[in-house]
Inverse folding.
C-alpha cells in the first residue's frame, strides 16, 4: 500500500488536522450530503443508533497480532453498509469505489459499470461484515512533553468522537471512522524512567513517533456517514517500528 496522508478531525472544535499516514494524494473538500436516503428513512435509522452505554466493547484479551489492517476509506464504506440498515446506494458507492465511474460523463458507460461492479461491491460488503478488529498507523504522531505528576505523555489529538479518514484519489471521501473512547488515551502512561527518557529524547528532537491504533467496530453514525470504533489499544513506535509503549483502553 502506498504511503498516504490521513486526517483527524476533533468534532468539538471542527479543526482539520492533516497528518502523514496512508494516502497517495491530498483530498479535496466536498459538499456531498451525509446520506442520500429519504428523510423519513434516515431519521428512522438514526433513531436506532445505539447509545454509548449500549455499544459492544472490544475484547482486550484478543492478541494484537490478530488484528486485520484497515485498507482505507473504501473499507470503512463497506463496513458502514455491512452494519447499517440503509440499502446500498450503488451510485454513491461507485463515486468513491471507481475512478472511471466518478470521472465519466457518459451515463450509459456509468450504468454499464454499475451493473458490472454490483456483485463485487456486494462481496466487499459481505467480507467487511466478518471483520470487527482492525488496526491502522497514525504516522508522525505528536506528543506533549513528559508530565512528571501523571508519569505520562499527554496528547490532545485522539479524543472522544474525533473523526479519522485517509486522503485518497484527489477527492473527498464521505465515509470515515469515529473514535468513541479517544479520551482513554489522553495520557500515554510511561512509569519506567529509562523508557520515558527515550521517548522524551525522540520527542524533543522531533524524531518520528507513530501511533498504532487497534480498533473494534461498534456501530454506525448515519449523521456523519461514520463507523463508530472503540480504540482497544495503542502502541507508540519509533521510526524503525520499535514498540516503545503499549496501552489498553480503560
Amino acid at each position: 500500500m502506498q504511503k498516504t496522508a490521513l486526517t483527524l478531525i476533533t468534532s468539538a472544535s471542527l479543526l482539520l488536522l492533516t497528518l502523514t499516514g496512508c494516502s497517495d494524494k491530498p483530498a479535496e473538500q466536498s459538499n456531498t450530503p451525509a446520506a442520500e436516503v429519504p428523510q423519513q428513512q434516515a431519521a428512522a435509522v438514526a433513531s436506532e443508533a445505539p447509545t454509548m452505554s449500549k455499544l459492544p466493547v472490544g475484547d482486550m484479551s484478543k492478541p494484537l497480532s490478530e488484528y486485520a489492517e484497515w485498507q482505507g476509506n473504501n473499507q470503512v464504506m463497506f463496513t458502514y453498509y455491512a452494519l447499517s440498515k440503509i440499502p446500498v446506494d450503488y451510485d454513491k458507492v461507485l463515486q468513491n469505489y471507481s475512478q472511471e465511474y466518478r470521472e465519466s460523463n457518459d451515463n450509459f458507460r456509468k450504468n454499464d459499470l454499475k451493473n458490472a461492479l454490483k456483485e463485487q461491491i456486494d462481496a466487499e460488503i459481505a467480507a467487511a461484515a466478518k471483520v470487527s478488529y482492525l488496526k491502522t498507523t497514525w504516522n508522525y504522531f505528536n506528543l506533549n512533553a513528559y508530565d512528571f505528576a501523571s508519569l505520562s505523555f499527554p496528547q490532545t489529538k485522539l479524543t472522544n468522537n474525533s473523526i479519522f479518514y485517509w486522503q485518497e484519489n484527489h477527492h473527498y471521501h464521505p465515509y470515515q471512522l469515529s473514535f468513541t473512547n479517544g479520551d482513554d488515551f489522553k495520557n500515554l502512561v510511561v512509569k519506567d524512567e529509562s523508557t520515558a527518557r527515550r521517548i522524551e529524547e525522540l520527542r524533543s528532537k522531533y524524531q518520528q513517533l507513530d501511533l498504532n491504533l487497534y480498533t473494534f467496530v461498534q456501530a454506525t453514525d448515519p449523521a456523519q456517514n461514520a463507523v463508530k470504533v472503540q480504540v482497544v489499544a495503542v502502541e507508540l513506535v519509533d521510526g524503525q517500528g520499535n514498540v516503545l509503549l503499549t496501552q489498553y483502553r480503560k
Notes: The first helix runs from residue 39 to 47.
